[in-house]
């Protein structure tokens, strides 16, 4: 994931209605009760109303905010997997660096061993 992709996700997050968001459910059905999502709400307003619209008309909201929330929701399907993949990539990279530092810390050279041990402990390696 590159910086531009991360920045685009960050901008969508910053423009969307602040969270937390929650799902509200209603029971439907005759013989069997099903609980289906009917609304997505934030602490301040309804994001998606029970009719599937992106706004509750009884609550004040700008068209820009509705557009930002819609963009955030629409991109979530790609953004979340991309971010999870990036976390996994960084975790693997971190694992490899830690293994390399472990090996370096075993070296006879006191300078490199001390630097590696400091880095492994999260200390200043300058």
TrEMBL record:
<keyword id="KW-0175">Coiled coil</keyword>
<protein>
    <submittedName>
        <fullName>Uncharacterized protein</fullName>
    </submittedName>
</protein>
<dbReference type="InterPro" id="IPR025153">
    <property type="entry name" value="Ead_Ea22"/>
</dbReference>
<dbReference type="Pfam" id="PF13935">
    <property type="entry name" value="Ead_Ea22"/>
</dbReference>
<feature type="coiled-coil region">
    <location>
        <begin position="73"/>
        <end position="110"/>
    </location>
</feature>
């Amino acid at each position: 994931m590159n910086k531009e992709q991360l920045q685009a996700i960050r901008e969508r997050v910053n423009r969307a209605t602040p969270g937390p968001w929650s799902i509200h459910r209603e029971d439907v059905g005759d013989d069997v009760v099903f609980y289906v999502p009917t609304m997505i709400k934030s602490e301040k307003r309804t994001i998606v109303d029970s009719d599937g619209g992106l706004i509750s008309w009884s609550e004040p909201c700008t068209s820009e905010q509705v557009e930002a929330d819609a963009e955030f929701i629409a991109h979530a399907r790609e953004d979340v997997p991309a971010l999870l993949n990036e976390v996994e990539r960084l975790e693997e990279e971190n694992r490899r660096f830690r293994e390399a530092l472990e090996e370096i810390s075993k070296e006879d050279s006191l300078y490199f061993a001390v630097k590696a041990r400091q880095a492994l402990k999260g200390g200043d390696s300058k």
